[in-house]
Amino acid sequence: METFELSKESYTLWDRIRKELSLLILLVAILLFFVGFKFVYFTAIIVMYSLLLLLKRNRIVTSISFDDQQQELHINYYYFIFVKGKERIPYSKLNYKLSMKRFGFGAATQTLEIFKGKILSAELRKDGKWSWPEEKTNAICDKLSTIQNSKQD
To answer: What is the average pLDDT across 12-28?
Structure first.
């Protein structure tokens, strides 16, 4: 089994809390400034932000493992800041796309998207929040292209 892992220093608990909750704190501050404390607005902001954190694009992918014996890709990740998750993708349903993506107002970042069929499972960025080193991303992309080419043969 070949495994690629993100260094533990790059996704410590404090970093996850600080980076994921900074937008929520900004939204609450704006809400308090313009409308004061209204329970309905405050609850709506918390619920919407919680749903936003549950999106698959907000997963913090910590490791990717290729199991050639069982023909599966294993993805370990964090979602909703604290909750650990795991997903298995059979090689037969595995798809990927390497492209430039724009996040917010920043410059475009090269992003490797991994799909289970047509459903997004993971997103690895080379720059920005929760970025992966370029060497690891390139190695994962090469391994995925090898798997894709062997499926077509």
So the answer is: 82
**Nearest one of 100, 139, 115 to 5, comparing CA atoms:** 139
Residue 137, H or E segment: helix 134-152
- The whole-angstrom separation of Cα 127 and Cα 129 is 7
Burial of 64 (0-12, 13-18, 19+ CB in 10 A): buried
Q: How far is CA 45 from CA 36, 48, 53, 83, 107, in A?
A: 13, 5, 12, 21, 27
Percentage of residues of the chain with pLDDT beyond 90: 14
Matching residue, tokens 């080193």: 133
pLDDT tens, position by position, 110-120: 888 999 988 88
Place of tokens 């292209």: 145
- Nearest 10 degrees: Cα torsion 78, 132, 2, 66: 60
Burial class of residue 117 (count of CB atoms within 10 Å of its CB; 0-12, 13-18, 19+): exposed
Task: Give pTM, 2 decimals.
Answer: 0.80
